[in-house]
């Protein structure tokens, strides 16, 4: 992982070069294009077992593009993505899902004309042979978000924004993910719900789920993250432990709105 | 008298509507998943009628299958059930596979092209299939053998229903129930619904989108083929351009019901069939197409999403 930080202005030395064993996910100099536009300019990121890693940055910095490239919705033009050592960058989206990388997409993207319960069933689409496991996952999901249980027969499209975010996360958990990727889970939600969502992320992490979190709410994301990467126009410009980044002057100025 | 006509036209309309519903499902299934109107779908109906005709002719040809078999298949109830089961199965599977092949060759390469491109490709497929029949089969209409025993049953005054109409209706209703259950209850059916509501999100759940698309392109044409055979049995004839008008009408039915919505397509089919038949009975036969398209225009003005189409609710 020594080539990891080539393009990185590493103001927090050694942070990114921490323990290299237990690497779940590794992005190695990923370049992703939208047509002729280069959205990711050689991004390298790694996520270790049990971590919360966050990608922060402004609109258009390439945060969501990074997640989509990992999940197979987009494909990198060059560079490699490895899950537990296995190259997954050429895989189709359903194959990546089958490997245990679950993306909870930006804007929640629940199935609006399916009931809450059907949405959860879709989350467990690839676990059809594990009937008992799916059952217990569903019980866990309802424990985690009791609100969803009350509304289990309601159509997803009739839920409030906060409830939809809960559903999207619960649906992701139904797949029993090795790595859960959350794309802007706090977007457009009331502060109380945002609190709840972040509390839930911590709870899930404490249960052993590795999390890659993309957020515009940099302050909150960095507070709960073990490590963070700061993205700017398709490149990693800064990386380090969440708390260090939170206190980094450059980050405070640019992303936390301090002068 | 008027009541007789009403009853008769209702019976005719429901029969016609059932066929429209079957074809409309094919349009709506593909549209729901691909957001594309498969203009070659009317040719699935036509080709299905031909495959059904050939299978039926083959199975009732003493030289091919022996006179004993023919007698068994046509002279008693069990034989007839068996005969038509085989005919519908062969035509359904053959045209279903044709649909899958068309998707592979004519639409999939254009998956990321502008939306006009697959539309033009579909029209090309339609012209190709019509001309294939013209070239390899016949430019003249072929008679559809009356193997099915048709008996008219008086139901009200002069109004009657034929055994064929009953057969078509019962079959259509059974097919609709099976399809509806499949889509709402089974794992693959749910994956199809999920894909039609949000393709990327379905992929993130692990659904193989290409499998779902192939399935839609199998089921739709297979149902179209079944409708084509019903049409052949009902009107006693098949020809190379028989798909055109029912195709347009069924597309209309799908839009009236709310395109992309399966129950909408079923409802739209029956609504259109009944209204058309009533127009033919009470106005003049020539007006039936006019009335059908007037209904379409009215629905598009007052309920652009269709009767069962849900207004798009977007929460951000």
Describe the structure.
Chain A is an alpha/beta fold. In chain A, 35% of the residues lie in helices and 25% in strands. Chain A has helices spanning 63-71, 93-98, 116-123, 131-144, 146-150, 161-173, 191-206, 218-224, 242-247, 249-255; strands at residues 23-34, 37-48, 52-57, 78-83, 86-87, 101-104, 179-183, 210-215, 227-232, 235-241. In chain A, the strands form two sheets. Chain A has a six-stranded mixed beta sheet with strand order 6-7-8-3-9-10, with helices on both faces. Chain A has a four-stranded antiparallel beta sheet with strand order 2-1-4-5, with helices on one face. In chain A, α3 (116-123) packs parallel to α6. Chain A is globular, with a radius of gyration of 18 Å. Chain B has 316 residues and is mainly alpha-helical. Helices cover 74% and strands 4% of the residues of chain B. Chain B contains 13 helices and four strands. In chain B, the strands form two sheets. A two-stranded antiparallel ribbon of chain B has the order 1-4. The radius of gyration of chain B is 20 Å and the shape is globular. The termini of chain B are far apart.
């Amino acid at each position: 992982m020594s080539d990891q930080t080539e393009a990185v202005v590493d103001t927090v030395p050694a942070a990114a070069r921490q323990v290299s064993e237990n690497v779940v996910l590794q992005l190695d100099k990923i370049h992703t294009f939208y047509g002729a536009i280069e959205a990711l300019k050689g991004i390298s990121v790694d996520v270790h077992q049990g971590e919360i890693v966050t990608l922060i940055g402004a609109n258009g910095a390439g945060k969501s593009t990074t997640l989509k490239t990992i999940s197979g919705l987009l494909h990198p033009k060059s560079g490699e993505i490895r899950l537990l050592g296995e190259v997954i960058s050429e895989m189709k989206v359903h194959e990546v899902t089958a490997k245990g990388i679950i993306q909870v997409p930006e804007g929640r993207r629940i199935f609006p004309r399916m009931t809450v319960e059907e949405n959860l069933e879709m989350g467990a689409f690839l676990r059809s042979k594990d009937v008992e496991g799916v059952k217990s996952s569903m019980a866990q999901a309802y424990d985690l978000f009791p609100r969803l249980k009350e509304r289990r027969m309601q159509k997803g499209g009739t839920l409030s924004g906060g409830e939809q975010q809960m559903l999207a996360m619960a649906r992701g958990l139904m797949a029993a993910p090795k790595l859960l990727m959350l794309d802007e889970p706090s977007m457009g939600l009331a502060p109380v719900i945002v609190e709840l969502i972040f509390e839930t992320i911590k709870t899930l992490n404490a249960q052993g789920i590795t999390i890659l979190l993309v957020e515009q709410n940099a302050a909150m994301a960095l507070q709960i993250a073990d490590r963070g990467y700061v993205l700017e126009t398709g490149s990693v410009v800064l990386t380090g432990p969440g708390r260090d980044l939170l206190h980094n002057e450059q980050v405070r100025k640019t992303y936390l709105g301090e002068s | 008298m008027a009541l007789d006509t009403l009853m008769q036209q209702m019976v005719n309309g429901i029969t016609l509507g059932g066929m429209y519903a079957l074809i409309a499902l094919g349009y709506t299934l593909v549209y729901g998943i691909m957001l594309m109107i498969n203009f070659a779908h009317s040719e699935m109906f036509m080709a299905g009628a031909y495959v059904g005709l050939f299978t039926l002719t083959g199975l009732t040809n003493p030289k091919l299958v022996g006179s004993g078999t023919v007698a068994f298949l046509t002279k008693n109830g069990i034989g007839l059930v068996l005969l038509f089961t085989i005919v519908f199965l062969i035509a359904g599977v053959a045209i279903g596979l044709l649909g899958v092949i068309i998707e592979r060759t004519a639409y999939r390469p254009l998956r990321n092209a502008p939306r006009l491109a697959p539309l033009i490709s579909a029209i090309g497929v339609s012209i190709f299939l019509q001309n294939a029949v013209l070239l390899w089969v016949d430019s003249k209409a072929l008679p559809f053998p009356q193997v099915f025993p048709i008996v008219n049953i008086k139901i009200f005054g002069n109004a009657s229903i034929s055994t064929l109409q009953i057969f078509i209706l019962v079959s259509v209703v059974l097919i609709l129930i099976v399809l509806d259950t499949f889509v709402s209850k089974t794992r693959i059916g749910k994956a199809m619904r999920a894909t039609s509501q949000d393709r990327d999100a379905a992929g993130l759940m692990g659904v193989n989108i290409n499998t779902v698309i192939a399935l839609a392109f199998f089921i739709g044409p297979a149902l179209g083929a079944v409708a084509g055979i019903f049409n052949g049995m009902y009107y006693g004839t098949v020809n190379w351009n028989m798909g055109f008008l029912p195709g347009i009408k069924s597309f209309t039915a799908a839009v009236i019901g709310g395109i992309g919505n399966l129950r909408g397509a079923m409802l739209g089919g029956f609504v259109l069939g009944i209204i058309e038949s009533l127009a033919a009975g009470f106005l003049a036969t020539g007006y039936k197409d006019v009335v059908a398209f007037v209904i379409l225009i009215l629905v598009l003005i007052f309920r652009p999403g269709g009767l069962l189409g849900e207004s798009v609710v977007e929460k951000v």
